[in-house]
Amino acid sequence: MDDVEVVERYIILLLGVDDGRPIPSATHLQKELFILGKANPKVEGIIGFEKHHFGPYSVDLNDISKNPIHHPDAFVFDSGRKRFYITDKGKELYREMIREYGKDPRFEEFLSMMRLVRGLYDGLTTEELLLLICTTYEEYTERSRKSKELLSAPKRTMLARRLLDKGLITKKRFSELVGG
Fold first, then answer.
1. Domain ranges, ordered by start, for the chain
2. Of all helices (H) and strands (E), which one includes residue 104?
3. 111-148 pLDDT, tens digit each
């Protein structure tokens, strides 16, 4: 299996692991797979991320996610709604992967990480997600056009307050984010 097919399978798994709920945006897909790559070196070795305008970004992931080759009917990017959806064919492939690898504890751990990532980050706005990425992986802000705006005191405070109100960060993390 080549790397392109592996990436397509990661996308199918990421979509399938949350009962087929759409991934909210292309930015969410990029950042969620980036975070999974930080937790799993195998993912990071297959999907290379570089410093970009919105933080970590993979040209290959962008191309593969919008123009799948091996599983072209498994998921779609709705350019109007800017979301990724799994199709019935994708759900079938997801179930096949579960049957094939489901007894492997490392695979189950990987699926658990995917569930956690989807549960945490899908509910964030793009700006909230980017703030967390910018503050956690500062080395990726070097070329980011958006990070300067997000890291300005008023914007940072407003976004951190929303994250705190959603129960996604602690008061300690809020203080860290606002610089106090």
1. 1-123, 124-180
2. none
3. 999 999 999 999 999 999 999 998 888 888 877 778 88
